[in-house]
UniProtKB/TrEMBL annotation:
Top-rank taxon, per record: Eukaryota
Family: Belongs to the aldehyde dehydrogenase family.
Name of this protein: Aldehyde dehydrogenase
Oxidoreductase recorded as keyword: yes
GO cellular-component term (any): cytoplasm
Residue stretches making up the Aldehyde dehydrogenase domain: 19-436
Alphabetized Pfam families for the sequence: Aldedh (PF00171)
């Protein structure tokens, strides 16, 4: 960071020299990312264990495996993404051919989050590199082992003139935001998202903001016991086994009919025991809270006098181990902090309703979430959710699975984010779609040029 402007100047010069444009360069970098993940699996497992207490199985599913899948998808589709797309023109453009040609945006800044410190960084890099850009990645300082791993290892696998990692916290982030970028891709909180967008405005830099919010899960009174069991397993898996609820698309709270609530809680209790045993603190299958600050934040949500009496399961905490037991609450007041703020931890409030259809009005009265989940086979309820609510994504009868879908755009709407990525959507997000037309000199319509007269108007 001693001579940031000089270093960025050199990166820009390298980029402007066309060094990152060829498909061969892009492929080599994507393969570099792949090798980085595959050859350093043990070190990544250990870094994720150290920063977040993630079990290797969870780390593989959420960070290495998902990124490997995305890299292979990009390698497979790169040629098609990079190709010019022919465009049809109206008859007035006689003897003209036209195409949309994707071109790299230039120098990109990625500011990333700590909850999936490897997976989220790599996923955004895939799009940036596929589109032929140069990039500076600033991982989150709150996952320091993973951040240092990326800073040490990426130069061994990628073109250091075009891809750099700069480590640091908010102060470094602010310094980076003072520079001129051709695109800023940010993953994090709404608060910092605003800071990023304000800084970007100075240079009219386009931004992608991958933010958070409260993702609800509507749970209908499923009739078969098979469906109920599957729904509960998927809910608990999505809430407690993905970074212990510290996930932007994790389930924040549940909406359920009053009459089904106690049966649902009972099913959850049974399945929690299967997943995390009698004493979840001994289980290696649940990640830890990232640091004391976030531990205290979550503790204060539970200590809130407004929610007294609503905890029906769990509630055990151990600050030294940064452990919070999977905790279920029923009907905490809607004006309590746990129902107003994004929880981002293993606390799961259940809000009861008279009728499951009331969930639509409930969701419409709140900010647009990153995802809405609905466990229901009722097609009319599904249709109403799709047509009457707005969210980054909707998933029926599962949760988190949309993150793996390269063919679906991943991103928020309203307060949950701006822009989208994954697969071709990433390539497009980091490309400029240049409109190009080639006109023949052969013929033309005489009436499209002055001098104007009434006859030309009638034509
Ligand atoms: P955060 O906003 O505190 O930090 C995100 C990044 O911004 C970090 O790299 C941090 O160092 C940097 N930063 C912080 N202050 C800055 C400043 N003043 N100037 C420049 N950079 C600054 O968020 P977090 O705690 O890392 O992540 C939690 C939030 O991120 C949650 O709201 C969660 O929902 C959201 N999130 C969203 C997604 C998504 O894909 N939509 C994924 C993960 C997390």
């Amino acid at each position: 960071m001693e001579d940031l402007e000089g270093e960025l100047g050199a990166m820009r010069e390298y980029h402007d020299g066309g060094n990152t444009r060829d498909a061969s360069w892009r492929r080599a970098q994507l393969r570099g990312l792949l090798l980085l993940l595959l050859e350093n699996q043990a070190e990544i497992f250990s870094a994720l264990q150290q920063d977040l207490g993630k079990h290797p199985a969870e780390a593989y599913r959420d960070e290495i495996g998902s990124a490997v899948k995305s890299i292979n998808y990009a390698l497979h589709h790169l040629k098609g993404w990079m190709s010019n797309k022919k465009a049809k023109l109206p008859a007035v453009a006689l003897l003209t051919t036209a195409a949309i040609i994707p071109e790299p945006l230039g120098l990109v800044l990625i500011i990333s989050s700590w909850n999936f410190p490897i997976g989220l960084s790599i996923e955004s890099l895939i799009g940036v590199i596929s589109a032929g850009n140069s990039v500076v990645l600033k991982p989150s300082e709150l996952a320091p082992t993973c951040s240092s791993f990326l800073a040490r290892k990426m130069p061994l696998y990628l073109d250091t003139k075009a891809v750099r990692v700069i480590e640091g916290g908010p102060a470094i982030g602010e310094q980076l935001l003072l520079q001129r970028w051709d695109k800023i891709f940010f993953t994090g909180s709404t608060r910092v998202g605003r800071i990023v967008m304000t800084a970007a405005a100075k240079h009219l830099t386009p931004v992608t903001l991958e933010l958070g919010g409260k993702c609800p899960a509507i749970v209908d009174t499923l009739s078969s016991s098979w469906d109920k069991k599957a729904a509960v397993e998927r809910i608990l898996g999505a809430k407690f086994s993905a970074c212990a609820g510290q996930a932007c698309i994790g389930i924040d709270y549940i909406l359920v009919e009053q009459k089904f609530c106690s049966a649902l809680v009972e099913l959850m209790r049974v399945n929690l025991k299967t997943m995390f045993g009698e004493n979840p603190k001994q289980s290696r299958s649940i990640a830890r809270i990232v640091n004391r600050h976030h531990f205290q934040r979550l503790k204060s949500l539970l200590d809130d006098p407004k929610i007294r009496g609503s905890v029906v399961h769990g509630g055990f905490m151990d600050e030294d181990d940064l452990f919070i037991e999977p905790t279920i609450l029923v009907d905490p007041p809607l004006e309590s902090a746990i129902m107003e703020d994004e929880i981002f931890g293993p606390l799961l409030p259940i809000i009861t309703l008279n009728k499951i259809e009331d969930s639509i009005r409930f969701l419409k009265s709140r900010p647009k979430p990153l995802s809405i989940y609905a466990f229901t086979k009722d097609e009319s309820l599904q249709r109403r959710i799709l047509s009457e609510t707005s969210s980054g994504s909707v998933v029926f009868n599962d949760a988190l699975i949309q993150y793996l879908a390269d063919a679906l755009p991943f991103g928020g709407v309203g307060g949950s984010g701006i822009g989208k990525y994954h697969g071709k959507f990433s390539f497009d997000e980091f490309s400029h779609q240049k409109a190009v037309a080639w006109r023949s000199f052969l013929v033309d319509f005489w009436f499209r040029f002055p001098p104007w007269n009434g006859y030309k108007l009638q034509l």
